[in-house]
UniProtKB/TrEMBL annotation:
PROSITE patterns: ROK. InterPro entries: ATPase_NBD (IPR043129), ROK (IPR000600), ROK_cs (IPR049874). Belongs to the ROK (NagC/XylR) family. This is ROK family protein. The lineage of its organism: Bacteria, Bacillati, Actinomycetota, Actinomycetes, Kitasatosporales.
Length: 323
């Protein structure tokens, strides 16, 4: 957060998820000048959810630096449809093909608005300011309640026609595996997301300590203490992630895979078996050298990335998402 006044153009960024809606003004160095936050009224109707978004925007518009804002970038839980400017986040039932871009544009007096999926936004952030900086070909992943991702190829962000490209969570890595809520079977997300790591551990007989919720973080603590069932749950998640990364490396040739999101906070409990499994799956010469590194930007990645993705898709003058 910069206390001083901004110089140069700003992008207003929105990071929209099932639990919170965050907003910030982002400068050309990727710094957040001001930040606003509202809980997502996820169980309410679409207009109520929109009201939380406009509340965040109103807070940003009240800041003295607002006049320097030249565009709005939105990173949203998906699926999104950047072609039609609509969002249908799985975890916000009130929004189905909701015309978010036009409504946000109205709320900010007609500034250009760019929409992308949250995985693509995180990727834009990590490429601009984080762990993928300096790489022309990268896969960036968010492993949390779900598993999302995005791609940088040939030095450019690849959002795809609708803003959902790189959605590694729904590559099938277990042909006859469990049915995924998306409708497919054996998806990476169905094995490697936080809730599914916890589900796997509980199924194997692990129990969290008294008074502790059964989360992936609790499973990680048990794994660090040597609990065999907890270690096996993380090993299986790591195997699924490795298979997805290897498939991506084989398909498009990446140099680095950046892994962020809450589950990545497990550290070596996740990354050690992930690198080991990847060496077994990514075996062709051009896929074998992929580095696996933790993300750098943490909770601000969505906001920084929404601005970076907007700068790239709108080709904003004086505001560049190139490192």
């Amino acid at each position: 957060m910069h206390p001083h006044g901004a110089t140069g153009p700003l992008v207003a960024a929105l990071d929209i998820g099932g639990t919170k809606i965050a907003g910030a003004l982002v400068d050309a160095e990727g710094q957040l000048l001001t930040k606003a936050l509202r809980p997502t009224p996820a169980t309410e109707d679409g207009e109520s959810v929109l009201r939380a978004v406009t509340d965040v925007l109103d807070e940003l518009r009240a800041v003295p630096q607002w006049p320097a804002t030249i565009a709005v970038g939105i990173g949203s839980a998906g699926p999104v449809d950047a072609l039609h400017g609509t969002v249908s986040p799985v975890n916000v039932p009130g929004w189905r093909e909701f015309p978010l871009v036009s409504r946000v544009s109205q709320a900010v007096g007609g500034l250009p608005v760019a929409l992308t999926g949250d995985g693509v936004a995180m990727t834009a952030a990590e490429h601009w300011q984080g762990a993928a900086r300096g790489y022309d070909n990268a896969l960036c992943m968010v492993v949390s309640t779900g598993v999302g991702g995005g791609l940088v190829l040939g030095g450019a962000l690849v959002p795809g026609p609708t803003g959902n490209a790189g959605h590694i969570g729904h590559i099938s890595v277990d042909l006859d595996g469990d049915l995924c809520p998306c409708g497919s079977r054996g998806c990476v997300e169905r094995i490697a997301s936080g809730p599914n790591i916890a589900r796997s551990a509980l199924g194997g007989g692990w129990q969290p300590p008294a008074g502790v919720a059964a989360t992936a973080a609790a499973v990680a603590d048990a794994a660090r203490a040597g609990d065999r069932v907890a270690l096996a749950a993380f090993d299986r998640a790591a195997q699924a992630l490795a298979a997805g990364i290897a498939a991506t490396a084989t398909l498009v040739e990446i140099q680095v895979a950046v892994v962020g999101g809450g589950v990545a906070n497990a550290g070596p409990v996740l990354f050690d078996p992930l690198r080991e499994h990847l060496s077994r799956y990514a075996t062709l010469s051009f896929a074998a050298g992929v580095e696996v590194v933790p993300a750098k930007l943490g909770t601000d990645a969505g906001l920084v990335g929404a601005a970076a993705a907007a700068a790239e898709s709108l080709r904003l003058e004086g505001f560049t998402s190139a490192p």
